[in-house]
Amino acid sequence: MHKGSCLCGDVTFVVTAPPEGASACHCGQCRKQSGHVWASAYVARAELSISGPVSWYAASDIAKRGFCPKCGSFLFWAAHAEDTISFALGALEAPTGLRLEKHIFVKDKGDYYDIADGVPQTD
């Protein structure tokens, strides 16, 4: 089980299943919303319990992004057609015991940094 929260603590969440697909997303939307790279993992929606007010932003025709309306922490990403939900790894209480499995959307990464950690990358 993992517990997490936003910066101000108004939104908390509990993950009751082992997280899958720990990744760092370099897409333009994640960079703009998080300020750099967004690290997340996912579970079935039924395995994530959220407490507190979450504002959802329809980021595209296929997905929405959830954030705290008070402090602005970007916490969740959910595709409309999937039964999973991604959550911010940075919002979890330590220790997480998790490791990044991949970097995704690296073709869209910012030009101000390099990825040199040896973790697999996909365009």
UniProtKB/TrEMBL annotation:
One Pfam family named in its UniProt record: GFA
Task: Return the SUPFAM superfamilies for the record.
Answer: Mss4-like (SSF51316)
Keywords from UniProt, A to Z, are: Lyase, Metal-binding, Zinc
Residues annotated as domain CENP-V/GFA: 2-114
Q: Which PANTHER family match?
A: CENP-V_GFA DOMAIN-CONTAINING PROTEIN-RELATED, GFA DOMAIN-CONTAINING PROTEIN
Q: Which family is this protein grouped under? A: Belongs to the Gfa family.
Tell me what this protein is called: Glutathione-dependent formaldehyde-activating enzyme
What does UniProt list as this organism's lineage?
A: Bacteria, Pseudomonadati, Pseudomonadota, Alphaproteobacteria, Rhodobacterales
